[in-house]
Amino acid sequence: MYSWIWSKIPFGLPGKLIGSTVLILGTGALLWFVAFPQLSAMMTPTQSTIEDDGGDGSDGGGGDNRDDNDSDRVTDNPSGYDLESSPTDKSSS
Question: Which residue intervals make up region (Disordered) (predicted)?
Fold first, then answer.
């Protein structure tokens, strides 16, 4: 298929290089500005495939290393960062 597209682009090697670049950028722009926004509109922000089992990331199983205050945290925050307070907030200490 790519050889067929390459053979159909006119104006020799410079035209083929420019034409293939335009085709690649056009395809990327079509995906970026049309297809991906339509797909993201169909996905709800609460869908997550990452689950927090409370483990420390090792393969030895999921130990419970959470604080007592973690029971009211949002559980679908895959980054694990506390988004409610800033890093300089000293109220939790």
Answer: 45-93
The number of distinct structural domains making up the chain is 1
The answer to the question of residue 93 being in a domain is: no
Residue 34 lies in a domain: yes
Q: How far is CA 52 from the centre of its chain?
A: 18
In a domain, 71, yes or no: no
Q: The pTM is what?
A: 0.46
Over the stretch 1-31, which tens digit does the pLDDT of each residue have? Answer: 889 999 999 999 999 999 999 999 999 999 9
